[in-house]
Specification:
single chain; about 675 residues; Rossmann fold; 2 domains; five-stranded parallel beta sheet; two-stranded antiparallel sheet; disordered N terminus
C-alpha cells in the first residue's frame, strides 16, 4: 500500500498548488521597491518595475490555481473563483477609500471635485482607463492624487475577470496541450512587447498637448491621449507580464516538477534565480520612467518600453522557477520570516502607503525627505497590520461571522459595552455617509495637470490648447522648431493711438497664474498653457496686425522648451522701437529642464541687441519664492508668490499700478 502510494502519486497531489514562501519573499522585494520609488524617484529610479513583478506572479499563481481546480474537479467554478478574489481584494480597498473619503471631507475639501472620478474608478476597478482618459498618469504632478496607485490593481482585477473564461476554453482541449499553449502565450507576451515598442513615442513630449506639439499624443474623440501613458497604464499593453506568468504556469507546476527530471536541478535553477535577481537589480537601478526633455517637456525611457518590461518579466520567471522548486535554496532564502511577513502583507502595504504619502506631501510628484519617508512607513506598517489581522484575513478565511458572534456573546451581558460598540458603528456609518454626500456635492474641477494649480489663482484654463490665430504676416515659423525667416516690421493695418492702448502681458502658464492680479493692475493678459517660442512669435505678429500692441509689452517665454535667437528676432520684428519703445522680457525658471539656462542667456543678451528691451530677472527673484514642485509655477502656495511676480513686473515697467484695461486681445 505504501509502496503503491510512493510509485503512483495521486493526481490531486500533482495538481495541488502548495504554499510557496519564496514567492511571498519575492512579493516583499517588489513592494519595497515600489514604495521606495513612490517616496523619491531619485532613490530608485526603476522601482516602479516592482509592479511588473507582481503581474508575473499573479499570472503564474492564478493560472496554477485554475489548472489545479480543473484537474481535481473537471471544471472551473467561476462564481467561487470570482467570489474568492473579491473577498480577498475588495474589503481592504473599500476600508481604505472610506477612511480617505472621511479624511478629505474633513481636511482636504477642495480636491474632492478632482478625485471623485478616482474613487469611482477604484470602486469599479477601472482606474487605469480613467487615468488614461483624463491624462492623470504617473508623470502628472501638482495635484492631490491619493488613489493614483489603483491603476495596477485595476489591471489585475480585469485579468481576474477575463482569464478564467479564457482558461475554460484552453482546458477543454485537455491538460496534455498545456505546454504547447504555454509556448503560444509566451509568443503573445513577445508580441505585446513588440507592439508596445512600435507604438512608443520617443523624443521630447510636451506636458500638455498642443497643435504643434503632438509628438506623444493621439487625438481620440476630440481628446488628447498620451501615447506613452496609455502604453504604461492600459490593460492590453501591460498584459505581457501576466501572460508570461501564465505561460510559465503551464510548463512549471511545483507538484509535477518534484516528480520529473527537473527534481535534481535545484542548483541550476538557483543560478538562474541569481541571474534574475541581478537583472532586476540592474533594471531598477538604470531605467527611468521619464527624464527631462532635451528641448522641452519630458522624455520617456525608450529602453523601458522597447524591451524593459519584457526583460523584467523574464527575470521574474527565473526567480519563480527557483522559488517554487523544493530542492532549490532560493525558496529558503526568499522565504525568510522577515520577507514572508512583508510579502503576506504586500497588498495592504501597496494599498495604504500611497495615500499616506500623499497626505504627508500634499501633491503628487513631490519627493519625500528621509524623515518624511520614515514617518510614512511608521504610519503605514501598523495600519497594514491592523487591516491584515482584522479585515483581510478574517474575511478571506470566512471567519468574520464567527468573530462577530464571539464579540456579540462577549457583550451580551454588558449593556454599556454593547452601547459603546453601537455608537462606534453608527458614528462610522454617519462619517462615511457624510463624506459621500460631500463628494457628491463638490464642484467638478480639473484633473492631473498644471491647470489645476491655476484654478487657485482665478485664471481661466482649458484642458487642451487651442490653435494659435492664423496670420498672413511673412515669416511664420515652421511648427517643428525654429523660425525660418525673420520678417520685416509687421505694421498695423490701420492707424491707432498707441498711447491709448493699455500695457499687455503675453506669456505662458506661469504668467497665467498671475492673470487676475495683472488684470486688476490694468494689464491686458494673453497667456496660454504650454506656449512655445514659435507660437509666441506668431501671436505677437497677429497682435501687431490687429492693432493690439501698445507702447508697453511684457513677455515671458521659454519655460516649456528651447527658444533660439532666430525666434527671439522674429518676436522683436513685431516690436520695433518706434512703435513699442518699452519691451520687458522675463527670464524663466523650472526644475529639471535642460533648456532653462540657455533660454535665460539668450533673453539677457536681448538688451545688447535691441535698444527697447529690458529684462526682469524672474529666475533670480524666484530664489526667494516658494514655487510649485515643478520649480516653475506660482500658484501652489498662496498669494505671496503671485504678489512677488506681479510686483516685479510693475517695477520693470516703472508703474506701481496701471489704469484698468479696457480692451482685450483677440486670441
Amino acid at each position: 500500500m505504501i509502496a503503491l502510494h510512493d510509485s503512483t502519486p495521486a493526481r490531486t497531489d500533482i495538481s495541488r498548488v502548495p504554499y510557496l514562501p519564496g514567492l511571498d519573499g519575492l512579493r516583499a522585494l517588489a513592494v519595497v521597491a515600489v514604495m521606495i520609488y513612490h517616496a523619491n524617484h531619485e532613490w530608485l529610479g526603476g522601482g516602479f518595475l516592482g509592479v511588473e513583478v507582481f503581474f508575473v506572479i499573479s499570472g503564474y499563481l492564478i493560472t496554477l490555481l485554475l489548472v489545479g481546480e480543473h484537474e481535481r474537479s473537471g471544471r472551473i467554478a467561476l462564481k467561487d473563483f470570482w467570489f474568492r478574489r473579491f473577498r480577498r481584494l475588495l474589503p481592504a480597498l473599500f476600508v481604505m477609500m472610506s477612511a480617505l473619503a472621511v479624511y478629505m471631507s474633513l481636511f482636504q475639501r477642495r480636491p474632492q471635485g478632482q478625485t471623485r472620478g478616482d474613487f469611482l474608478g477604484g470602486i469599479f476597478y477601472g482606474s487605469n482607463w480613467y487615468q488614461i482618459a483624463v491624462g492623470q498618469g504617473y508623470t502628472a504632478a501638482e495635484a492631490f492624487a491619493p488613489l493614483r496607485h489603483l491603476w495596477s490593481l485595476a489591471v489585475e482585477e480585469q485579468f481576474y475577470l477575463m482569464w478564467p473564461l479564457v482558461m475554460i476554453l484552453i482546458l477543454r482541449r485537455g491538460a496534455r496541450h498545456l505546454p504547447r499553449i504555454g509556448v503560444w502565450l509566451f509568443g503573445v507576451s513577445i508580441t505585446i512587447a513588440i507592439v508596445t515598442g512600435a507604438l512608443f513615442a520617443g523624443g521630447d513630449v510636451a506636458t500638455t498637448c498642443a497643435p504643434d506639439r503632438m509628438n506623444g499624443y493621439w487625438r481620440i474623440a476630440g481628446r488628447c491621449i498620451s501615447t506613452n501613458e496609455t502604453l504604461y497604464l492600459s490593460t492590453v499593453t501591460r498584459a505581457g507580464g501576466l501572460m508570461l506568468g501564465a505561460a510559465f504556469a503551464m510548463v512549471w507546476r511545483p507538484g509535477a516538477i518534484v516528480r520529473g527530471p527537473m527534481r535534481d536541478k535545484g542548483r541550476q535553477v538557483d543560478l538562474l534565480a541569481g541571474a534574475g535577481v541581478a537583472i532586476l537589480a540592474l533594471l531598477m537601478w538604470r531605467l527611468r520612467l521619464t527624464t527631462p526633455g532635451h528641448d522641452f517637456g519630458i522624455r520617456f525611457d525608450p529602453w523601458l518600453f522597447r524591451g524593459g518590461f519584457f526583460l523584467t518579466g523574464l527575470a521574474t520567471v527565473f526567480i519563480i522557477a527557483a522559488a517554487s522548486h523544493q530542492r532549490a535554496a532560493t525558496g529558503t532564502l526568499l522565504g525568510n520570516p522577515v520577507f514572508v511577513w512583508i510579502g503576506t502583507r504586500s497588498y495592504g502595504m501597496y494599498l495604504y502607503h500611497w495615500p499616506i504619502y500623499q497626505i504627508i506631501r500634499e501633491q503628487a510628484g513631490r519627493p519625500l525627505s528621509v524623515a518624511q519617508f520614515v514617518l510614512a512607513i511608521a504610519i503605514t506598517v501598523p495600519i497594514t497590520e491592523a487591516s491584515y489581522r482584522y479585515i483581510e484575513t478574517p474575511i478571506r478565511k470566512g471567519r468574520l461571522s464567527a468573530l462577530y458572534g464571539r464579540a456579540s456573546r462577549a457583550v451580551t451581558v454588558d449593556r454599556e459595552a454593547r452601547r459603546n460598540i453601537t455608537v462606534v458603528l453608527v458614528s462610522a456609518l454617519v462619517l462615511v455617509g457624510t463624506a459621500a454626500i460631500s463628494f457628491a456635492a463638490a464642484d467638478n474641477l480639473c484633473v492631473g495637470d498644471v491647470a489645476c494649480s491655476l484654478v487657485d489663482s482665478g485664471a481661466t484654463t482649458t484642458t487642451t490648447t487651442a490653435a494659435p490665430t492664423q496670420t498672413t504676416v511673412p515669416g511664420v515659423v515652421d511648427p517643428t522648431g525654429s523660425a525660418t525667416t525673420v520678417p520685416a516690421t509687421a505694421a498695423p493695418t490701420t492707424t491707432v493711438d498707441l498711447d491709448a492702448l493699455p500695457a499687455i502681458a503675453v506669456g505662458e502658464s506661469v504668467m497665467k497664474g498671475a492673470e487676475g492680479a495683472l488684470l486688476a493692475g490694468g494689464f491686458v493678459v494673453d497667456a496660454q498653457e504650454s506656449r512655445q517660442g514659435p507660437e509666441m512669435a506668431t501671436e505677437l505678429a497677429n497682435l501687431r496686425t490687429n492693432n493690439q500692441l501698445g507702447r508697453t509689452v511684457v513677455i515671458q517665454i521659454g519655460t516649456n522648451g528651447t527658444v533660439d535667437d532666430a525666434t527671439f528676432d522674429q518676436m522683436m520684428a513685431s516690436l520695433p522701437a518706434d512703435l513699442t519703445p518699452h519691451v520687458v522680457f522675463l527670464t524663466v525658471r523650472a526644475k529639471d529642464a535642460a533648456w532653462i539656462d540657455g533660454n535665460n542667456e539668450r533673453i539677457r543678451s536681448l538688451v545688447n541687441r535691441y535698444t527697447n528691451v529690458t529684462v526682469a530677472d524672474w529666475a533670480t527673484v524666484a530664489d526667494g519664492v516658494e514655487l510649485c514642485d515643478d520649480g516653475a509655477h506660482i500658484t501652489c502656495h498662496g498669494a505671496a508668490p503671485i504678489r512677488t511676480y506681479t510686483d516685479m513686473i510693475f517695477d520693470a515697467i516703472g508703474h506701481p499700478e496701471l489704469k484698468p484695461a479696457t480692451t482685450t486681445p483677440s486670441t
